[in-house]
Amino acid sequence: MSGFKFQRMGQIMEPEPGNLWEIEGVLNPAAVRGPNGETYLFPRLATRGNYSRIRKNTHYEI
Could you tell me the CA-to-CA distances from 60 to 4, 11, 41 in Å, in that order? Predict the structure, then answer.
């Protein structure tokens, strides 16, 4: 056992209604903290036909 405990706290992102770039989901966000102390999320956006793009998000509360 690693000694870590996992507790699911809820969703941090969800598709924006009407946004065609997110119509099939907002998935697998990576997170990093920048040198300025701000947290950046890089979610995968899935559009129709499962075409994906990566977006950088910076303005939100965690």
Answer: 27, 13, 10
